[in-house]
Amino acid sequence: MVKNMDRKQQFIDFISERSDAELKEMTDNMKILMSYYRCAMFEIETKFRVLNEQFSIEHERNPIESIKTRLKSLESIREKTVRKEIPFTVQSIEDNLSDIAGVRVICSFIDDIYMLADCLTSQDDVRLICTKDYIKDPKPNGYRSLHLIVEIPIFLRNEKRFVKVEVQLRTIAMETWARLEHRMRYKKNLSNDLLKQTENELLECAELSNTLDLKMQDIRNKIEGEYI
Ligand code: 0O2
Predict the structure, then answer these.
(1) How is 5-43 classified by DSSP, letter by letter?
(2) Domain-embedded: residue 23
(3) pTM of the model
(4) Average of pLDDT values for 9-34?
(5) Domain that holds residue 96
């Protein structure tokens, strides 16, 4: 909570140091930039919805449980520019940050994650910028997900613009773990001992949820094997 208040205050200080004209220009440019990210996010979301639809017709099942989209808040963008020691300008944000637009795809099975990632990145208007596979190499705290940074074109009135989107693909079990861990790690009034202990317990939960994912995948493989 204290850290959040610090960030908020830093942001308020930053704003109050700007002239009215500077603020107006910044706000207008930022609004335009955010609208590009919003459009790119919709494009990617639609691509996944199309894949899900096609898959459900051809295979009578949906690989996607749900899709969530989010645009990073200005406060959070500002905090990241401070952390990365880069200017808080439209150009610098475009050049240096790749997670302003985020699309999270919750899948039924681990195999679906890789199948959908392949389908997306093999589309000829999608450029894959980088992949972080936290399923093959989980974070030390147990976090699992497949992250892709992709760039797609959005077509404006007079121009075609490439915009970056961060795609996170994970199973229902990975999502449950990540959401609960995210909620709990911001509790600041825990003692160091309790922090350490809960870290270990969270890691155990991550391993249990991975076991569940692997088991479910195995069961599905057996069932599909029967019907081929
Ligand atoms: P939010 O609210 O989801 O936007 P950086 O982005 O610079 O901090 P990096 O290495 O570029 O770090 O990105 P990374 O670690 O590949 O992915 C960052 C995003 O992945 C986070 O975004 C989270 O959504 C998710 N994530 C990564 N690690 C964890 C984790 O340990 N626990 C949980 N619950 N989520 C994680 P943001 O911006 O932090 O948050």
Answers:
(1) HHHHHHHHHHHHTS-HHHHHHHHHHHHHHHHHHHHHHHH
(2) yes
(3) 0.89
(4) 82
(5) 2-172
